[in-house]
Structures are given as structure tokens and as C-alpha cells.
Structure of AcrR family transcriptional regulator:
Amino acid sequence: MNKRTEITTQTKQNIIDAFWELYCEKRIEKFTVKEITSKAGYNRGTFYEYFTDVYDVLDVIENSLIPSLHELPPISTPTETIGMPLDVFLNIWEQNAKYYSVLLGDNGDPAFASKLKDSIKPAVMKTFEDKPNIDKRELDFILEYILSAMVGVMSYWFGQEDAPSRDELFRLMHKLMEDGVMKHLPR
């Protein structure tokens, strides 16, 4: 990599880092390009060499955190049940925890959860494409339900002081998916 490319890459990363620091503190509509560039040590013109606006920076960050189909490990179902890849999902979550906890938090981007689910859903759907008697429309709703629950539970998990361990959470989520929620509520 030549010197100019290294400088360009570092400048862009510095702007992204400054944006992220501000984004962790307040909602995106509450800070400006001027605040980002001031924090990063550049002028506004430098910002616009790399990004069109603050939402463009957010898109760059989010897109770097969304696993693409080829990055996900193969998903298999050893039984006829829909064995959601909880371990895969937890691993992705833990690798990106500092970002996911903010993006999926109260001050985060409401669209990020959909982007995340939409990146994982095709891999799971592909697992069932050769199964007979699968109603793809119904499967799509089932996966939306499960992935929404997983995103919600993991967001909640990261925000708790006295959270269960990763293994405890894994077991609970697996039981809920296999047995259903109603079996685990007090009667």
C-alpha cells in the first residue's frame, strides 16, 4: 500500500471513529458534521471527500457490521425441526457487541435490526429450500418472528447488569425455540 492510500484510509477511519464517539453519546440528529470534524481534527471539506453526510457514515459502519451471505457458516438442520443457528448468531453478536449494543439500543438506528435480520434470513431459508411441503411464505414469517426475538433478547442481554452467562442464554433461547414460550411461563 502506498503512502497516499495509507493516509486516505487513516483519515477516513479517523472520521468514522469521531462519528462513533459522538453517536455513542447522542442521537444522530443531535450532532453535526462540524462536531465530527472538530473531534477528528479535520475540516468540513475533508469530511465531504469521504462522506455525503452523517447518515452516510452510519451506513458505512452498519454495512461493515452486517454479515454477508458468504461470511455466514453453512447452516444445517440435523432434525426436522427448525434448528436456528443460535451459536452463529451469538458469535456474530459478541464479535460486534460494542456496535450492536449501541445500534440496537434506545438511541440507535431502528432500521439496523431489519438489516441484520435480512442478512441472516436468506442463509436460513436456503437450508429449507429442498425440503418438501415447505410453505416459503409461512417460513418467512416464522424466521422473522424468531430473528426478531433473538435480536430483542440479545439487545436486552447486553444491557443487563446481572445477565445470565452466554451458555445459560443459549440454553434458554434453545428451549424457547424448541418448546415454545408458553411452556416456560408460570401457571
Q: What stands out?
A: Residues 7 and 76 are 44 Å apart (CA to CA).
